[in-house]
Specification:
about 55% helix, about 10% strand
Length: about 270
């Protein structure tokens, strides 16, 4: 049992660019009506204007902070219809080494984890009521990271919060997946976005280490490829979406022999510094 995207209403957070914008376009191409949301209103308008030229009034927008209940409520009101798909894509990559500040930790936790929790609290009760025997009430899509299955050299804040995002998605699926709530969790490695470019130019050695680790572990992919893999998983009713298939092998190696895997990660880190 999986959700039909054609004719659905979807929300995509962090949609001003990168993966979020690509997911917005891919959903529109599949016939969905899409609310694009981002904290950066100017960039959001630029993206939404381009998509609206092609897809018309199926493109909606709301510049808001989706880590708060008020922000999520505002996005859902903008949809002006029951939301079928919520893509929790907004994320931050900040805080490097043990010098990561309390503010870095708080921001990473709020955006990368609590933004998902707040949205799920608003939507899951509705989806449980709407679910039928042959159709889920809605689909929650968590855009996490391979860092949530493996780790992220350089950034403890990103590694820890992406592990938490994966854990929350797993909990949602285990708790509500057989009761009408579909869950898909995406765990890409490097994606050609502004976040990757910022790491390349950073003056922080740990930030550059994190970037080097990402691009060395696997070839970065385009945001459109992430969107394709994610929506294929949604349409198939699958939990896991891996734009880099090699992550499954790495994850299996980690699970089967953690000490050997950690020794390999240490050698990998040493090769990059």
């Amino acid at each position: 049992m999986s959700l039909e995207l054609d004719g659905s209403t979807a929300v995509v957070t962090g949609a001003a660019g990168g993966i979020g914008a690509a997911l917005g376009r891919a959903l529109l191409e599949r016939g969905a009506r899409v609310v694009l949301s981002d904290l950066d209103g100017g960039r959001l308008d630029d993206t939404a204007d381009v998509l609206a030229e092609e897809f018309g009034d199926r493109v909606l927008r709301r510049a808001v902070d989706v880590t708060s209940e008020l922000g999520v409520d505002a996005v859902l009101e903008t949809a002006d219809a029951p939301v079928d798909v919520y893509v929790a894509n907004a994320g931050v990559f900040r805080g490097f080494g043990l010098d990561a500040s309390p503010e870095d930790w708080a921001s990473s936790w709020d955006v990368n984890v609590m933004g998902h929790v707040v949205a799920a609290r608003a939507l899951v009760p509705q989806w449980l009521e709407r679910a039928t025997d042959d159709r889920p009430g809605g689909c929650f899509v968590s855009i996490a990271s391979a860092a949530g299955l493996l780790t992220q050299l350089g950034s403890p804040t990103y590694s820890v919060t992406k592990h938490a995002a994966v854990g929350f998605a797993e909990w949602l699926a285990a708790t509500y997946g057989d009761r009408g709530v579909q869950v898909t969790c995406a765990c890409p490695m490097g994606v050609r976005t502004a976040m990757l470019e910022e790491g390349e130019s950073s003056s922080d050695a740990d930030a550059r280490l994190g970037l080097q680790a990402v691009v060395s572990a696997g070839e970065p992919v385009e945001p459109s490829e992430v969107a394709r893999v994610v929506l294929e998983a949604v349409e198939a009713g699958r939990f896991q979406a891996l734009p880099h298939p090699e992550v499954a092998t790495m994850w299996s190696q980690k699970a089967s022999d953690p000490d050997r895997w950690l020794a390999g990660m240490q050698r990998f880190r040493q090769s990059l510094v």
